[in-house]
């Protein structure tokens, strides 16, 4: 068992790893918003295998990185800002010259599960092939049929990588892959370890395999590989990831305060389907995972995911259970705003989130007892205060809710004050933050605010 | 400027407000391909209701951000047939909306059903008081539809709007302290009533003490968070007072944008085209069948949109205007007393009474809800004996504190006779804003032969069409009604313990004045009924003369009622849609034989 030192949420992680997986910036959220209505391939007249493939593509959330708003479906082009330059997701439509139209099924499988292109070059691990390695042959086959027979070929060419030699060389990735990418066979075996509980087995498959939840929610080592790819390897699996674009993925394990300890399976299913539950609403990078992916999964699969996640014990076992404390509520009701940030909270936040911090779920998410609020890393909370957040419409919950951003009307000090108040109120026990915490996150704001798509309700 | 003919669709809907959105939802459910044309822009809570910047009284209530811009088209107004009408160039007396959501985005939220007697006012008055009771020149009419027929659609609309209220009876059983005069309901309100603000609380107690029957005004301002029948969600109202004239940042005021359009926008059968100004409905050579509409898009191109069914769901007078410029139905001529389009144009008859409470009572007028409050209906509709009074109509009386904001409070100042500036103005204004309770007599306005809408012979809009002309003035019957009901308020303010009361009432001989806001509750002009000689639409809101045109809105009211129109408009929209779905689509043609 790993010690709590490696549980991601135990200490504040100050380094921003920009070279891992997705650039989960606002572009993705906007992609999500516009694609929800335009990207769903019609299921008319397509074969059952292709339909299955479409379902797998959603479970694997291919569109989040490979479909951009205003562009053809799966034509790529999502930028990933890495220290050595910007790379772009590739066109995976079946166009013979610009996409994967010339791929055989085994080349396709090799790319998805091992990160090896048809020409033998290694793919950047922004593509979560260490997780996809676990996908079954049947799913890979269905995915191949879907991409080659149903998706429309697109001649769009994503921009070329801006990396320059020698950093543009891909061959060192072979070495990385040799160390950190399991063979497909080995990976499938380790994920197919549950034989008696069908739901656990299915849940583990979806989470560790196509769902690639660990790509964001498992901490990464200095060498950028996920510290564990499966639940059986280590309790750091899904214990909370490194910051990506200023968003800090939370633990999906059983921590009482910072994980899913107080979430029920019903909460998790509702969250993955609607992006909103009594416990909280989706924001940041997870938004695209729900918009493109999980909202399309059937009840059984969502329940299996929830069942599996709820089977993961806390990594950080030392958290005292969260219990609501009315101290701040009583003070605010008495007009006492002497606590740091209390006055700002009453003026800017309480209209929707209430003075008692319970808010009005599922309309406006609660702050009292919310694992995101109690995450030692304040990044997500600061980002939401600065830039606001959009909870997009889902198939079964058509309402979009928008929280306004306060980045233009509040100083770094004010944001730090109000975030500190939220982190310390109603039984939340997380420490204060400084204006430097806020200043560092302002750099992500240009990306987040510069959106043109506005939710229309 | 090109002329482009678009691909034909099943249904074209003119107007993106409540009526249009309800029709679009219903008809897409019936498998129809629907295109909705809205002359204004898209609207978004994220922008128009941005918090806190949208809470701007100057922008919202004085620069009319989400209301109609009058530069391109307006109406002309005169008081009587001997005058020359002039264009309404600045918004004041009434405030039509513009943009997706229409008036349904800027409304307050009062969501009432209709008094059953109001639906059959002519029959009721004749039965109770005899035909001679109806004054000369008053065009008193029945709607041609009964409350029992409309009840399921009132119920349906309330569940879509997330209406907060307290019922009196449900299925004949008394269930709560709702309006004792209200007709029976098939189900309770979807949400409990909003809480009383101080003024409403005092008014409720006093009205009860006097012997009246106070009730919570049904309001489409959600008292709790709510998910409606379409899965659309509302937040709970926090009494911020920014309802009328604003997009609600809490998502708690019902609007087409929040309550219906989210369930339509991802439907491939539905398309909304903003910035599309419909110029006229196109008719075939027989003039008995519409072939579609012609509109201008934002590039200035003229678009012909063919359709099998045309739904006019614009604002009341725009529906009438479109019928007149398109040649649908015969235009009303008040002199010859012929024709129906433009006939029975009505308004609403409102006056405000103010009571000043003891200085120890703070009425907090800055908080409020657009639709919430306390009313009594003892002097509304036929709830009281008009025999000895000699007038027709009535008023609910209410405290409907919708949030008095700073500029409005300063403009209102103190009681009549207070100086308009200086220290006396200041102290009276502060006293009034801090301690006063305002209550309205929100009365009906009857229809008259010489009050009507027609096309102006002189003035044209930016598109070359004649402007619609309003000929309107207050009439003795309605002024007497107002003065009678307002007189009844005095006992209430006394029981409230008011130290001073100003009874606001209409004065005889005071003409309709367009410079002051009264209400946007305009009605009639293309009314529903059983007789093609006195109504433009049959009881299903279908044009008598052009059976594939339905006209939905308060234009269908044969005369005014004491209630706000939106509840009735929504119920009529669902009623009409139901009959289009059940009967018309299977067998297109007149739903009532002519």
TrEMBL record, chain B:
Matching PANTHER family: LONG-CHAIN-ALCOHOL OXIDASE
Keyword terms of this UniProt record: FAD, Flavoprotein, Oxidoreductase
A Pfam family matched in the record: FAD_binding_3
Positions of the FAD-binding domain: 9-45
Gene Ontology molecular function: FAD binding; oxidoreductase activity, acting on CH-OH group of donors
Residues of the Glucose-methanol-choline oxidoreductase C-terminal domain: 455-573
Residue ranges of every copy of the Glucose-methanol-choline oxidoreductase N-terminal domain listed in the record: 233-346
Protein name as catalogued: Gluconate dehydrogenase
Superkingdom of the organism of origin: Bacteria
Family: Belongs to the GMC oxidoreductase family.
